Amino acid sequence: MVYVCYDNGAYMNTGIQRSSATPKFADTTTTPAGTKVPGKMQSRKDLTLIMANHHLPYVAQTAAIMNFKDLYEKSEKAIYTKGACFLNVLAPCPRGWGYPTEMLMEINKLAVETCYWPLYEVENGKYKITYKPAKKLPIEEFLKPQKRFKHMFKPGNEWMIEEFQKEVDARWEELLRLEEITNKE
Length: 185
Fold this sequence. Notes:
Order of helices and strands: EHEHEHHEEHH
CATH topology: Rossmann fold
Number of strands: 5
Number of domains: 1
Largest sheet: 5 strands, mixed
Oligomer: single chain
Strand order of the largest sheet: 1-3-2-4-5
Radius of gyration: 16 Å
CATH superfamily: Thiamin diphosphate (ThDP)-binding fold, Pyr/PP domains
């Protein structure tokens, strides 16, 4: 059995409400960015890591990027793996994230190239990063085209971008560490 989560980082079909998967500082209808509160104050829960920690035989995180090879291969692996499997697929929402629809593939690419949304799999407890950017882009590249983060680019709010970058970097380093320690022979 394969559970596929199309992760758009919020409850989009009920009015763009924050969820546990909503990134920190995102402006949503239930966590509006304003003068008192700069959007959602909690960090995004890492659903893929949560599922991996439940010891499923196969867990993967992917996105519609490049030639769809990563998405295809992980889907096939999940379908043919015995037992419960989980795929977390990035699903950017033009309306909820506030970017032009024609930028969909670019938003996916920026999520991956900034390591906001790393491509990886966990097979029988072994982590494997399936794509490592040659030159990791700064998180601003991913945040800037999205209206939900526009308040972060106002003068005086640089600290939000710095904090966001630190969290992305820490999660990426943790993923690199998990790959290394789970593949020692």
